[in-house]
Write a structure and sequence with these properties.
By secondary structure, this protein is mainly alpha-helical. The protein is built from 17 helices and four strands. It is elongated and about 100 Å long.
């Protein structure tokens, strides 16, 4: 118990843990939002909840009421409902609907603060930027333990989000990739969608006090985006997004200490760094991987062109001239190094063989591949 108290009283550990929990809770939901092309709803909800907080305060005149969570969560859900309704009306597109609803709610909240709560500590800057560096100061007593409130709340929300995804994984997966089939099988894509966004609203409410809206949106969108580039498997995407979020929290905090800059800002910056790595080095979609895939495809096409050239001329009376190594540069317009490399590949793969006079001939395997390359063209010619 004494050791646990010592850990919970360590500001460094608490800050990293809060950041890690926010990142995991956010990225778990963010993976499904990315796949459903609704990721910017996180930005809308995280800004719109300020209106719920303000209205709750104006109704209760109490800054410590637990109704803040309920009011903010309901406002977030109302944001989603209005956005969906506007989009389904057909008069505006989905992204435009988001751009209409949440700026209105956020602006209304700021206006109400200036009119009726000017002297009350409802800081709009704190809502946007948060201050995770102070998350260890506010504590809640649990027996002999003094647990940071943000850590306690985020632990609950993270476990709730994880439990929801584990319980409804198949249903969420099906409704994400095929809503029609999901509805036909008796599942309700509508209910799952709003349950997912209700959890996002709750996560935003609980997290914004510690990390602010900007870092929350970064955690919802960027780690899942990096994971999306790294894999085509949904469960791997969830795991990678969580790892990226936790890594960004740890490295962001260490970097902020070293550079004496904003902790939340550095955490968000590290998520962007991981996204850049995925954008460059993703096995399938990364720029570097695709560059080398293009080179390999170019080599494959060149090899096929060589086989087709040999096949077209192998029965010609002048095949000894046409299929000579020295003639390839003239016919195919390749440099000597490229020709030499292709011939070595063809010999190694058993597609061609070369006689002592430097003439090239197709092997049965090479002839079959050349015929397969030409078959679609021959079929088109007949049509």
């Amino acid at each position: 118990m004494a050791m646990l108290n010592q850990i919970l009283n360590n500001p460094d550990v608490v800050i990293v843990l809060v950041g890690a929990l926010v990142s995991v809770a956010s990225s778990l939901l963010g993976c499904f939002l990315i796949l459903r092309k609704a990721s910017m709803l996180s930005d809308a909800i995280s800004h719109a909840i300020l209106l719920g907080i303000v209205l709750t305060f104006l109704l209760t005149q109490n800054q410590n009421t637990p109704l803040f969570v309920l009011g903010a969560a309901l406002t977030g859900l109302l944001t989603v409902i209005l956005t969906e309704s506007l989009a389904q009306s057909g008069r505006v597109k989905y992204d435009a609907a988001i751009g209409i609803v949440y700026p209105f709610f956020f602006a209304l909240a700021v206006l109400l603060i200036n009119l009726f709560a000017r002297n009350v500590h409802l800081d709009t800057d704190a809502v946007l930027l948060g201050e995770i560096g102070f998350s260890w100061l506010d504590t809640t007593s649990l027996g002999a333990l003094e647990v940071p409130t943000s850590l306690l709340k985020m632990s609950f929300v993270t476990l709730l989000n994880l439990a929801f995804i584990l319980l409804f994984y198949k249903e969420l997966k099906l409704s994400t990739f095929d809503r029609a089939l999901s509805a036909a099988l008796g599942f309700s894509p509508f209910i799952l969608h709003y349950a997912l966004l209700s959890l996002l609203s709750l996560t935003s409410v609980v997290a914004f006090d510690a990390v602010g809206a900007v870092l929350l949106v970064a955690f919802v969108i960027i780690p899942p985006s990096a994971a999306y580039l790294m894999t085509d498997s949904l469960w791997r995407m969830l795991v990678i997004a969580g790892v990226v979020g936790v890594g960004s929290s740890l490295l962001g905090y260490l970097s902020a200490l070293a550079l004496d800059v904003s902790i939340g800002g550095m955490m968000a910056l590290w998520t962007a760094f991981f996204l850049a790595l995925a954008f460059l080095f993703s096995p399938r979609y990364g720029l570097i991987s695709r560059y080398y895939q293009g080179l390999r495809e170019k080599e494959r096409n060149a090899k096929r062109m060589l086989l087709v050239h040999l096949f077209n001329h192998e029965n010609d009376p002048e095949s000894h001239q046409e299929n000579a190594v020295s003639a390839l540069k003239h016919h195919l317009r390749w440099d000597k190094a490229h020709i030499r490399n292709l011939i070595m590949q063809g010999l190694d793969e058993g597609l061609i063989h070369k006689n002592p006079n430097d003439q090239l001939f197709l092997t049965p395997k090479g002839r079959l591949l050349a015929q397969e390359v030409l078959a679609p063209w021959e079929y088109s010619a007949k049509l």
